[in-house]
Amino acid sequence: MQKIEKNIVILMSGSGSNMAAIVHAAQNGQWRDRFGARVVCVISNRADSPGLATAQVLGVATQVIDHKHFTSREAFDAALQVAIDGYQPALVVLAGFMRILTADFVTHYNGRLVNIHPSLLPAFTGLNTHQRAIDAGCAVAGASVHRVTDELDHGQILAQAVVPVLPGDTADTLAARVLYQEHLMYPKVIRQLLLQL
Known about the structure:
Layout: E1 6-12, H1 17-28, H2 31-35, E2 37-44, H3 50-57, E3 61-64, H4 73-85, E4 89-94, H5 103-108, E5 113-117, H6 129-135, E6 140-147, E7 157-164, H7 171-196
Parallel strand pairs: 1-2, 1-4, 2-3, 4-5
Antiparallel strand pairs: 5-6, 6-7
Helix pairs in contact: 1-7, 6-7
């Protein structure tokens, strides 16, 4: 019996470190041979995203859909959706994708769209999460992988990683420790989701 292809499309805007962690896990774990899964494309909304070069070195196709070329969020999301659907994805993975998606886009990928957020949700949705955790006097911070809904950072939490907030931490030092945990957690969650498909 022919194995069903479980294509993964990753959306990102910046350095692509979580994207790279996922691609490495897929390649080193032989996801395609084991359960028919592979990262087929990395799409960025910024042509200057360093992660694009990383994806190319890793042998993954890349595409740029620059949000600045569109007059509305709806028009951008429609173009993004056309590009993604060309790969018939089982999962669409947000990995540092710095765009708020429209409700129609989220609905189209209902059950197939996941994100990683650098806080212990439901605390500190949105931006500047590490500084906000420090300012609030939190003993711990961390990251959450969640399903994406049309309410920002409010979807079902699939996994969390907890990181202590240390005396003297800055937003940057805390962010670095959280990011390390993100790189461990996100590929594991995606692998589990793929096994359920």
